[in-house]
Amino acid sequence: MSSSPAEAFDVDAFRRTLGAFATGVAIVAAEADDGSLVGMTMSSFNSVSLDPPLVLFSVARSALCLPALKSARAFGISVLAQHQQELSTRFSRARGEKWAGVSHLRGAHGAPLVMDAAAHLECVPHALHDGGDHEIFIARVLEHRAQASDPLIFHAGRYRSLSAAH
Fold first, then answer.
1. Domain locations in the chain?
2. How many angstroms separate the CA atoms of 115 and 137, rounded?
3. Cys-Cys crosslink for 41: which of 66, 69, 90, 92, Cβ 3.0 to 4.6 Å?
4. Whether the Cβ atoms of residue 150 and residue 60 lie closer than 8 Å to each other
5. Nearest Cα to 123, choosing from 145, 92, 144?
6. pTM over 0.85
7. Is it true that the peptide bond before 52 is cis, omega within 30 degrees of 0?
């Protein structure tokens, strides 16, 4: 099941193994120091603690928006709804006009939030940790809200949808 130390670690196989874990999809966004908006699609988003209310997300060290996220004063996390697959794809790209034509609002703490998302969380930085080729952000939740909506799901390299219980 696992490789021995003498065997080379197969990164592609590891990625496929991790892909067996279905995740929701979110957009993490912030305002950069120059006032522009940054954002990226995120499937590495999790709850950490209820007291205090903490969540985490991780960002590749190679991500173009990493410096802006590291200096952000607030984060807007929009948990995408099933109908927002196009937004997920758009915000997963490194470059481009991600925000052009995207309906969004500013949360009470200034971070951008995508309209019609299944849930919104407004957060402030709490801690930053080394995560190998990623930086792990822990954020304190200040505001949150959810609406009845089916979430966008990602599993085994594809978008999926939930099926009704039988």
1. 40-58+117-144
2. 23
3. 92
4. no
5. 144
6. yes
7. yes
Measured between its terminal Cα atoms, the distance across the chain in Å is: 34
3-state SS assignment for residue 29:
strand
Q: Report the candidate in 89, 104, 82, 79 with the shortest Cα–Cα distance to residue 28.
A: 79
Q: Please, which residues bridge with residue 23 across strands?
A: 154
Tokens of 1: 């099941």
Q: How do residues 137-157 score in pLDDT, each as one tens digit?
A: 999 999 999 998 889 989 888
* β-pair partners for 144: 121
Q: Are the C-beta atoms of 100 and 130 separated by less than 8 Å?
A: no
Going by pLDDT thresholds of 50, 70 and 90, the confidence category of residue 70 is: very high
DSSP 98-125: TTTT--EEE-TTS-EEETT-SEEEEEEE
| Phi and psi angles of residue 131, each rounded to the nearest 5 degrees, phi first | -135, 45
Q: Which amino acid is at 134?
A: H
